[in-house]
Amino acid sequence: xxxxxxxxxxxxxxxxxxxxxxxxxxxxxxxxxxxxxxxxxxxxxxxxxxxxxxxxxxxxxxxxxxxxxxxxxxxxxxxxxxxxxxxxxxxxxxxxxxxxxxxxxxxxxxxxxxxxxxxxxxxxxxxxxxxxxxxxxxxxxxxxxxx
Length: 147
Known about the structure:
Elements: H1 3-40, H2 44-58, E1 64-77, E2 80-85, E3 88-93, H3 99-103, E4 110-120, E5 123-136
Antiparallel strand pairs: 1-2, 1-4, 2-3, 4-5
């Protein structure tokens, strides 16, 4: 074997070792990075646990119906009014059928309202309040009493 062929052979052996080593390093990196992601995926049974948690978080307390005297504070948006009951403001959602009655009210009017209150079981801070009826108090009617 002459020296030219030997150098060619030695270079090709060295470069093939580099290619093998580089491929091995890249493979190890790939498996270590993406292999953890594959093992980190939740098991099939855990999806039912998540859906049960969502269902539990949506569970509501029993619906409570109240009729009280209040002060009309105004309309917050196209489907929400604000009233004060015993000096505390309450935002109430209403359906379009009540829009004519609400439009006839002015800020500061004494009203009698019937509404429902409900809470989420796992979040007692959030109140779901829906206005069922509203009427303006006539002059001489007693204000701020609960029925």
